[in-house]
Amino acid sequence: MSTVDNVGNEIEINSNSFSVHPGSTINCRTVASLCRRYHVHVLVSSDAHSCYSVGNHVEALNMLEELGFPEELVINSSPERLEKYFSEKQSF
CA 26, 73, 59 angle in degrees (round to 5)? Predict the structure, then answer.
């Protein structure tokens, strides 16, 4: 996980995974916990395969909240944070 951050990559947390892929909750929680431990940024998405689920981040956000995941590591927690993250990334 520390390698992910060292090379400037992010981890995507998909809300759709919780309902579409049985057993993925444990994996998602493990990955998110490792990201928290190593201060790796995440991006929350719906990964919708239906127009009715676009933008539905509820499951992913609930999991991150349960884990006490720091908001400052969620790249798209606000438009300002998203813009700041990618403008800083361009300076690499």
Answer: 40
